[in-house]
Amino acid sequence: MRRDFRITKEPLVMIIPMIDIMLFLLVFFMVSTIYMVQTNTIQVALPQAAAANMETRPNIVPITVTDKGDVLYNKDTVPNEQIEAKVKESLAEDPDTVFVLRGDKKTDYGDVVGVLGILKQAGGRHVSIATETARGH
Prior knowledge:
The chain is of the alpha/beta class. It contains three helices and seven strands, in the order αββββαβαββ.
């Protein structure tokens, strides 16, 4: 059998499956990043809010006020006198650092306001208060 070399057949490049795979990878990394931010914090019972959303900036520092009034700065228990120094240190590394204040719903209101005041004195511009989404909304 003789082959005719004048007839050439171009290979087909199927781009649709490649697009599907790329979109799947994009969604996978977006979802896994969201869960990594949430699991990097101490578990406390958060109050509920109807318009709760999650902060997704890269440099997020969680500050947790427990129901006993203890303050945890990025999982480390810190006395109130040292919080301002830690905040200034984080801001020196990245001025756009976001501080997420996570207060247990049984926490005294004065403890949370005290930490907010310390954040303001230290120069924290981006402060979020963590809540859970209210059920039924």
